[in-house]
């Protein structure tokens, strides 16, 4: 059989045949005088076995070992491989079920599908509480960056802070924080910046109990360092130097109040 005929009989592509030969799943066939591959019925049988094992969920890396085990006198290893595959499939099913639950929540609450659902829920709630459109766009960007990079404990803290802002009736004050920072002139002097910082901290103090000390004391993970770098890039693009200075100093004050230690003193 030529490559095309074998591929058609097995229901695969010729490219798949070549790939299986390359990785050693299929032996190199005999070749005729014209150089074309000449497959035998044994090759077809092996290809069908490979195809069936793949349909069960075995990876191509594991199929070779499974075939060797099935062809040997001792098939005990086959049971181990089947058990391992079953564990993998259970994990995949659980993951798919979580995804289905997430999709159901997105659909039922009409959340943004491209933002992690717990943060998309916050965005939706903030929108319902009257956040202006321009601030919503900014919040959405920040939430997207946070969701992509922060750890679960960091996200827990973020969710707790925003929920407190909503539940404690601080949404209007939260909007004012944005206005105070955005309205800060590029040439703001120290007195102007300090006044904004004092007002911002006055609002944040009312949710300070929601910050998790362990998050702020722990050494940053690699993902958190990447997140910090991304947020710095975002600040460079979205904020003036004066606005960025205010934001950095506010974060430093939070750090000091939560942990008793200032980042700027290091």
TrEMBL record:
SUPFAM superfamilies assigned: Putative DNA-binding domain
Domain HTH merR-type: 1-69
SMART domains associated with the record: HTH_MERR
Keyword ATP-binding: no
Pfam families on file: MerR_1 (PF13411)
InterPro entries: DNA-bd_dom_put_sf (IPR009061), MerR-type_HTH_dom (IPR000551), MerR_fam (IPR047057)
UniProt keyword list: DNA-binding, Repressor, Transcription, Transcription regulation
Presence of the UniProt keyword DNA-binding in the record: yes
Name of the featured protein: MerR family transcriptional regulator
